[in-house]
Amino acid sequence: MGPEEGTDLVIRGISTLLTCDPGREVDGIEVPVEDGTVVVRHGRIVYAGPGDGSPVIPDGMATVIDARGHTVIPGFVDSHTHLAFSGDRAFELGAKLQGRSYLEILKAGGGILSSVRALRGTTLPSLLEQMRSRLDRMARYGTTTVEVKSGYGLDLETELRSLEAVSILDGTSRQDIHGTFLGAHAVPPEWSSDEDYADHICSSMLPAVAEQGIARFCDVFCETGVFSSEVTERILMAASGHGLVPKLHIDELESIGGADVAIKVGAISVEHLLRTGPEDARSLARSGIIGVLLPGTPFALMKDDYAPARMFMDEGLDVALATDCNPNCYTESMPFIISLACYRMGMTPFEAIRGATINGARALGLQDEVGSLTPGKRADIVILDGPTLDHLPYRFGINPVRMTIKDGTILGSGEP
Ligand code: NIG
Ligand code: FE
Hints:
The chain has 416 residues and is α/β, with parallel strands linked by helices. The protein contains 15 helices and 16 strands. Helices cover 35% and strands 22% of the residues.
């Protein structure tokens, strides 16, 4: 390793190169390249393939990185996070260990509602500082594109402040950050029912969010005891009318018809899917919707039921992987999520990495710009310790990222 100074970038001698370019898949699998080279010019990929097919770069024209003994993959696209929170909920760990369920904690005013109280009392500068530190950690763990949901404000002022933070961070940090309005994350105490709160979302919150242009997506937590499928549909139809693209949290705890709503409203993705059956998986696949799987969530809920990833893929549903980083499931690490996907959901390292890169990009509609090492796309690259793909999930609880590159610029290095 040890990059030299230069304008552009050549990574060569790569032991294993996986581009995640769907065009390179044969029968749904990409065979990684051994002794690969990646060439970057003006922040974009120019070449990614075998070393002996690489264009010749004259000496001194580029920063050269020798990646012998390393694996190179696209930067991670974390397509589902709730980074806009204040503080943490470490104090709930004891209750969780005593067997109290997620919905019990929520009904008693804890969970999301306790994070709402914390965020309402947090200033914009303090929120920005907390989010920046999470984004920095994400960069060190290889994440170059991040989706961030609001949803811990649940009143107009705090929801707008959260999305403003997202848009400020998108403008000031090297990562690309995309905002999602999740006003329908829980019913706040000042509203008596999900219907009444939904009226407020549709009449006041959505128009304000749309007018400020600070969110691309609108999400709803469609779940028993939170938002019914009817209310979910109403909110997402209204969101669509304001130009926001629908996403849904569905089937995390129980299945209440979220998949049908997703298809009706033309959602880009459905997320969690712990209780989704084969029939719904097939219908979602037919509609071209991406399933975003979040194995950190059952891990943090201390449950053994992970999303049936293999069944989804057999039914033709394309799956993405994301952290769900939130105060209940507090991890910024996509490598850890990839380990969980392999160890607990039976995904292969290739399937998991594809889920964490190109399929994450598809869940955000960004597949033409990021998510694979394809000539013309942005040069978002991760250099991993370990000479094969298997090393990434195999070693867990450590940071396997040696270097994160965003738009051709070295963002940061993990621990050696
Ligand atoms: O995706 N399920 C709803 N929202 C988050 C959890 C948020 C929280 O507990 O603070 C999730 O898991
Ligand atoms: Fe979530």
